[in-house]
Every structure is written in structure tokens, then in C-alpha cells.
Specification:
The chain is of the alpha/beta class. It has one domain (about 1-195): 3-Layer(aba) Sandwich (Aldehyde Dehydrogenase, Chain A, domain 2), CATH 3.40.309. The protein contains seven helices and eleven strands. The protein has helices at about 15-25, 35-40, 45-55, 90-95, 110-115, 130-140, 180, and strands spanning about 1-5, 5-10, 60, 65, 75, 80-85, 100-105, 120, 125, 145-150, 165. The strands form three sheets. A seven-stranded mixed sheet has the order 3-6-7-2-1-9-10, with helices on both faces. Strands 4-5 form a two-stranded antiparallel ribbon. Helix 4 (about 90-95) links the parallel strand 6 and strand 7. The chain is elongated and about 80 Å long. The model is unreliable at about 1-5 and about 35-40 (pLDDT under 50).
């Protein structure tokens, strides 16, 4: 239900079809060329996956660096899906800046909201539902700067304010006219003048 820019915590009440679709996408993904940012990777993301394994979580797919043609330097991490990690574990509650998602099976809507809000982060969140009522309740209860109903957690429009809650935010919103506030200090001025003295 909730994701961060470079990872995700997913809470589902009917997980199996979602897992099947995620696996198909992860196994069929095409990778581009490594960028310099990835070249300086310190191994934090794959170390977090290893610690999750050691804590009893199951790596359903991925979890390792890719090698082979065009990937000899190991700058790519395979898209990774982890299940069974505690909500407060490093892999489920940290921004790892890698292609990692954690799956949390829940008993129903209320538990899914609790799972989505069980993080100090709150940049974006999404729900997929046939119920407009459930979608509206999700928007009202999820703690995030952006909420999406039946859509992704990325792709915020440039003319709309963008920012997060909790440790994903700093109280300001980027983009839109609200971004001007980030770079401005407001001052209220009262001035009385005599037009005859101009």
C-alpha cells in the first residue's frame, strides 16, 4: 500500500495475484546502462537483504547483484521482493535506494492501514480497490504527502505540491506555486503614507 521513491512496503489483503504479477514484471525487466551514482554504491541495499534473510524473511525473487555481459562491475541489483520481514525491520522501514519491495500479508483494510502507517516515512501511498468508499477512507487515514487511488506512487504532476510526512518531509512542498514558499521569507508590512509628499 505504501512506497518510498526507491523501495516499497506493500500490504495486501489478496496478495497471491499481486505476487504473481510482480514476479512476472521483476523476472522480465530490462536494465539499462549503469550510471555513475550506482557506481559508487557501498553495498548497503544487498547487505540489508542479507540481514533480512538472517532474520527469517524470505527473498521471493532477486536479492543479489547482477553480473554478466554489461554488468561486470556489479553495479546492478536484481529487482527484489522480500516477504516475512517485520514491519519495523530495516528492510521494511528504511530508504535503501535499491529495487527492493517488501510484502506484508494482512487480514483486512484496517490492518493494511496500520501496516502502511507503521513507518517513520510517508512520501507516497497507493491503494487499488473497486470501492470508491474504501479509496476515500484510505486517503483520509494514510499518513503520506501524496495518496493515490488505483494508480502508482510515482509521477506526481509538476504543477502540484509534492512532499512527504514524517521523516520523508521537512514541512515544505516542492513543485507548484507552493515551491515559492520554500525559497521565500514572508514579511507583512504596514505603511501609512501621505500621497502629497511623493
Amino acid at each position: 500500500m505504501q512506497s518510498e521513491p526507491t523501495g516499497a512496503s506493500l500490504a495486501f489483503t489478496t496478495a497471491d495475484p499481486v505476487v504473481k504479477q510482480a514476479l512476472a514484471l521483476m523476472n522480465d525487466g530490462k536494465l539499462g546502462e549503469a550510471q555513475s551514482l550506482l557506481a559508487s554504491d557501498d553495498g548497503h541495499a544487498d547487505a540489508a537483504v542479507q540481514r533480512a534473510r538472517e532474520s527469517g524473511a524470505e527473498v521471493i525473487v532477486g536479492g543479489e547483484r547482477l553480473t554478466g555481459e554489461g554488468r561486470d562491475s556489479g553495479f546492478y541489483m536484481a529487482p527484489t521482493l522480500v516477504e516475512g520481514a517485520a514491519l519495523d525491520s530495516e528492510i521494511a522501514s528504511s530508504e535503501l535506494f535499491g529495487p527492493i519491495a517488501t510484502l506484508h500479508r494482512v487480514a483486512g483494510f484496517d490492518e493494511a492501514i496500520e501496516a502502511a502507517n507503521a513507518t517513520s516515512y510517508g512520501l507516497t501511498a497507493a491503494i487499488w480497490s473497486n470501492s470508491v468508499h474504501r479509496g476515500q477512507e484510505f486517503v483520509a487515514r494514510v499518513r503520506s504527502g501524496v495518496a493515490s487511488v488505483n494508480g502508482p506512487t510515482y509521477g506526481s504532476e509538476p504543477h502540484m505540491p509534492f512532499g512527504g510526512e514524517g521523516t520523508s518531509g521537512n514541512g515544505w512542498r516542492e513543485a507548484g506555486t507552493e515551491a515559492l514558499d520554500v525559497y521565500s521569507d514572508w514579511k507583512t508590512v504596514y505603511a501609512n503614507h501621505d500621497p502629497t509628499q511623493v
